[in-house]
Specification:
Layout lengths: L1 H31 L3 H13 L1 H10 L1 H20 L23 H5 L6 H9 L1 H11 L14 H15 L18 H14 L5 E5 L25 E8 L2 H5 L4 H27 L4 E4 L8 H7 L4 E2 L5 E2 L7 E8 L12 H10 L1 H5 L11 E3 L2 E3 L4 H11 L5 H5 L8 H12 L1 H15 L18
Antiparallel strand pairs: 1-2, 2-6, 3-6, 4-5, 7-8
The protein binds iron/sulfur cluster (2 copies).
InterPro entries: 4Fe4S_Fe-S-bd, 4Fe4S_Fe_S_CS
Keywords: Iron, Iron-sulfur, Membrane, Metal-binding, Transmembrane, Transmembrane helix
GO molecular function: iron-sulfur cluster binding; metal ion binding
Length: about 450
């Protein structure tokens, strides 16, 4: 009996220490993230939770053993209860091609009174009324915008200036002598080198018409039909810094977006040139010079799913990434993309981005049929109107998404739970709301960015 008592005591102690360490670790992570509310709540738990156990211990160790057994059983059940697998939350393939002239960046570039302007709105009179709203606002990176910050805006413009200079390098002469390289060797090299250049994840896909825009919507080739020259693509993600994103929609978000457009552009240009050096046609798709719809290419390359906010949701950094794509005629693997229904199911429940969106551009509804396919679609006109008022690319949705939390053991464990347990997916949203808030406030910008307007 004595040895049973000792064994039970040891088990209780081990379980109690494990729970305590988990809460301590959670508190430290929240504190490092500078999340005051989450830290306060975790620390409160740290001190309050042991109380009933200690009181019970005072009366009888059997009660403590019972309580801890119930905790362990509940934890086990969260992952073991078989719920029906979610399926067909969104449809997979767009029914038609998107015209780049319809995207907000292209419409923003139309100069009032120009031929392009007149022609576009003659064909799309309904869009002129909507676009007049953003034209009344100060505009992106302008002095009169709400979040104007002279240093951050100047830095953002510097990054956009640099990426603009890559546009002469997105394509070029192909070496007439083509090197014979096996697909196996090429994919190992491309994956490793792209990561070494700064990418997080790399994938490959075969291209279909729906990956390409139907017509150019920006620059000198405005209105030209886009021909599907390449049949394969390399897609990759680059991470956006969590601290810069957390302050969205303040100016650090646009600094970070511009920086990562530049990073993605640099990597894409290098890969494109590398393939052309070896005798394979290749084109880099970079900010302001896209012929493909990057989120669709990246999704089909297996890098994530397109979530409620219309961005690619990656398994580890969520939407807190920028994308790069290189198209080529080198025959790459066309592995069938495996739909991540768990992630889409979580998106279906969460709706946090819809709750925080300052312009109410994100729907709270489940995916529904738009142009013949079941999906989510944000209201890009109201979103862009807010950007034009804010002066930044907002990013409040990205900053608040539970999937955007930093890549560490705590958040990776939660993302693992979301991926593997339907019941945990139900718990994860209220848990995130409890610690971070349903509508988390924007964090402060990093200290080194002066908070000044003049
Ligand atoms: S905030 Fe929630 S609903 Fe929105 S994209 Fe992220 S996971 Fe999906
Ligand atoms: S970027 Fe801002 S305005 Fe646009 S959908 Fe996200 S939260 Fe809403």
């Amino acid at each position: 009996m004595d040895s049973l008592y000792t064994f039970a005591i040891l088990i209780c102690l081990a379980a109690a220490i494990l729970f305590f360490i988990t809460l301590l670790y959670t508190s430290i992570i929240f504190w490092k993230e500078k999340e005051k509310r989450a830290t306060f709540r975790a620390v409160t738990f740290l001190f309050v939770l042991p109380v009933p156990y200690l009181l019970s211990w005072y009366y009888s160790w059997e009660i403590v053993a019972l309580l801890l057994s119930i905790d362990l059983l509940l934890t086990f059940l969260v992952f073991a209860i078989p719920f029906p697998r979610p399926k067909n939350i969104c449809d997979d393939f767009p029914a038609s091609q998107i015209d780049e002239r319809d995207i907000m960046f292209a419409r923003n570039e139309l100069k009032v009174g120009s031929n392009r302007y007149d022609e576009y709105y003659q064909n799309n009179p309904d869009k002129e009324i909507l676009d007049n709203k953003f034209r009344k606002e100060p505009g992106l990176l302008t002095k009169k915008s709400v979040f104007y910050n002279r240093m951050a805006y100047a830095a953002s413009n510097a990054s956009f200036f640099a990426v603009d200079h890559f546009k002469t390098a997105i394509d070029g002469e192909v070496n007439p002598i083509q090197e014979a390289i096996s697909q196996e060797k090429m994919i190992v090299f491309l994956k490793s080198w792209t990561k070494k250049l700064g990418a997080l994840q790399v994938g490959f896909t075969k291209l279909s018409d729906y990956h390409y825009y139907s017509h150019k919507g920006r620059g000198d080739q405005y209105g030209e039909q886009i021909k599907n020259h390449h049949s394969y693509a390399i897609a990759f993600t680059v991470e956006m810094n969590q601290e810069m994103v957390a302050a969205a929609p303040k100016a650090s978000i646009v600094m970070e977006s511009a920086q990562q457009y530049l990073e993605a552009g640099r990597i894409a240009v290098q890969i494109g040139q590398f393939l052309r050096n070896l005798g394979y046609s290749a084109k880099a798709h970079i900010d302001g010079n896209y012929e493909v719809i990057c989120p669709l290419v990246a999704r089909d390359a297996g890098l994530g799913e397109i979530g409620r906010m219309g961005l690619l949701m990656t398994p580890k950094e969520g939407p807190r990434v920028r994308l790069g794509v290189v198209t080529t005629d080198f025959v790459l693997p066309s592995k069938q993309w495996k739909k991540n229904n768990s992630l889409l199911d979580f998106c279906n429940r969460c709706k946090k981005c819809a709750a925080v969106c300052p312009s109410k551009s994100i729907s709270f509804d489940p995916p529904h049929r738009i142009d013949g396919i079941k999906r989510w679609q944000i209201n890009s006109e109201s979103c862009f109107t807010y950007w034009s008022k804010a002066g930044t690319d907002c990013g409040r949705c990205m900053a608040s998404c539970p999937y955007s939390h930093p890549n560490n053991f705590l958040h990776n464990s939660i993302r693992w739970g979301i991926q593997h347990s339907p019941l945990f997916r139900r718990i994860a949203v209220p848990l995130d709301d409890f610690f971070y808030g349903r509508k988390p406030k924007a964090a402060k910008m990093p200290n080194w960015i002066p908070n000044e307007k003049l």
